[in-house]
Amino acid sequence: MATLTIRDLDEATIERLKARAKAHNRSLEAEVRDLITASANTPNWASFRREAERIAAKTAQRPQSDSVELIRADRDNDSDYR
């Protein structure tokens, strides 16, 4: 495992992190580790959006269906939703 040192965090931030840690019944270190891990594992939505736009551009000449309407029609035809 690597070690990471974070310098120059303001006291208010540290106090909020301590409060979060206490609320989750863990140490400040464990809380920060969890926050960093969760942040690193969050999908890159900007990259996803660019890829979706790239794919949509390939079918720009074709009419696009509204997914809400398609889902609603599917539910209306499915007895499990009634």
Textual characterization of the structure:
By secondary structure, this protein is an all-alpha fold. It has a domain at 10-59: Arc Repressor Mutant (Orthogonal Bundle). The chain is 61% helix and 0% strand. The protein is built from 4 helices and no strands. α1 crosses α2 (28-40). The longest helix has 14 residues, at 45-58. It is elongated and about 55 Å long. It starts with 10 loop residues before the first helix and ends in a 6-residue tail after the last helix. Residues 69-82 have a biased composition (Basic and acidic residues). Residues 56-82 are annotated as: Disordered.
Produce a short descriptive summary.
This protein has 82 residues and is an all-alpha fold. Helix content is 61%, strand content 0%.
Task: Give the fraction of residues assigned to helices.
Answer: 55-70%
Q: What CATH first level of one domain would be assigned?
A: Mainly Alpha
**Low-confidence residue ranges:** none
Mean of all residue-level pLDDT scores: 89
What CATH calls the topology of one domain is Arc Repressor Mutant
Architecture (CATH level 2) name of one domain: Orthogonal Bundle
Strand and helix order: HHHH
Cα(first) to Cα(last) distance is: 53 Å
Tally of helical runs: 4
Oligomer: single chain
Strand content: under 5%
Record field, number of beta strands:
0
Q: Identify the overall geometry.
A: elongated
What is the makeup of the main sheet?
Answer: none
Determine Rg (CA atoms, Å): 23 Å
